[in-house]
Amino acid sequence: MLLHPKQQEIARSNARFKVIRAGRKGGKTAYERESISYKATVSAKKLELAKTVFDTGRKVIYLAPTQVQARKIVWEALKGRLSGIAKFNEQMLEARVPNEDGEITTIYVGGWENRENYRGLTDVVHITFDETDSLKDFFIAWKEIFRPMFLDTKGTADFIGTPRNVNPNLRRLEKEAEGDPQWECFHFTSRDNPFLPVEELDALEKEYTGDRTAYKQEILAEHVDNSGALFRFASLLDVFTNTVDHGQKYLIVDIADDGTDTTKFSFWDGLCEYRRETFSRLNTEGIVAQIKEYASLERIPYSNIAVDAIGVGAGVASSSLLDGIIGYKSSYGAMRTDLDPVRLPNVHYTKDAPLITEYKNLRSQCIFTLANLINNHNIACSVQDTRLKESIIEELSLYQDVSTEDGKRMATMKEDIKALLGRSPDDSDTWIMRCYFVLRDKLSPDQSEARAEVVKQLKSQFDRNFRRQEHNSTR
């Protein structure tokens, strides 16, 4: 294959890990087909691997977002490239090809949905991740499944794709690659591929006149910020290295109501989460006992403890053993922390001018508050847990401003986030609940009566709903 100049730059690079961001038809997948074929057939010495003898045979992996895509994107192309050389297993999408060491290399072509099947695979010398921004839970799988494969081989990996603003894994990889000599990043557009007809590219640019965002992303391969996103992606990454002042301690308890039977305890020192504990199959009594124990050990006052008061959480929040804790429900009305603006004489006002504190519900208000804290680097997490970090980044990056014309600000509904994730956003829910106390503390000292009234109203509303639910369940 004749490589165009941008592909040649990639081929000349000695970096172990290459992040390749390119426009549609820019030649990234064609390059990978050649790279995979080369790494499968040449000697181990030429690849500068950590070893030259492979007990189970050398292995190369290519992963697309789905098995169907993998077959369409690269499998047929590999069959043509290695025709007459390799033996192909159509059912397993595996190709066995002889290499210069007189051994056999196996090329595995698969879908990201089957990534767990690769856990523990040995003698892997290279992995290509295609359409990287479409791979969910990417960093968890990379660090837990794929990166450890290279411990004894010193293998290589390529991360390729056209950027997406919904799940920006390429952008994250480029940021983490900064200053690391093992990594190198490459960027080229569709126009950088000299084998594409110029007249077609010009026609396409004209068609994109009304949608420059799509053109920048798909053709120019530029990172385009989601205009409706509440959380800046760079700020989300910074949360785990931010330093904030310490303050009062808080405990947030999220009790899953989606059948997972997990309870998460989130510990905060001011606006820094410093500990996270997760339990399975705790009943109401067990959760109450655990809260009492943690409150005592961590010296957290009950008034600084919030429990998600849905399902099992309703029984926990109403327990007489935990008198004073906050029963949090996302459907509660928003807290009005600011006074109505002064109305000047001779100035026209609409009949019902919305207050700046008017939100659809308490959850939306807390999400907007959390976004402000994160975007301004005023909140932090010191918990050393890769899964927690990746989950929070993935979950919060999906929230958008979906306010309607009724004047009330609203964030993406939890059910919509669940649909996008394929799971419940439980890890970030504790952060959203933590913002209840941020809102409560916004009430200035001279509003102490108002603050007490807010807490009283929330408690009264919860008690009323709880009694109604209890009455209905006995009928």
Descriptive notes:
The chain has 475 residues and is α/β, with parallel strands linked by helices. It has 2 domains: 5-224, P-loop containing nucleotide triphosphate hydrolases (Rossmann fold), CATH 3.40.50; 236-473, Nucleotidyltransferase, domain 5 (2-Layer Sandwich). 37% of the residues lie in helices and 17% in strands. It contains 15 helices and 14 strands. The strands form 2 sheets. It has an 8-stranded mixed beta sheet with strand order 3-4-5-2-6-7-1-8, sandwiched between helices. Strands 13-12-9-10-11-14 form a 6-stranded mixed beta sheet, with helices on both faces. A hairpin with a 2-residue loop joins strand 10 and strand 11 (272-280). The protein is elongated, with a radius of gyration of 27 Å.
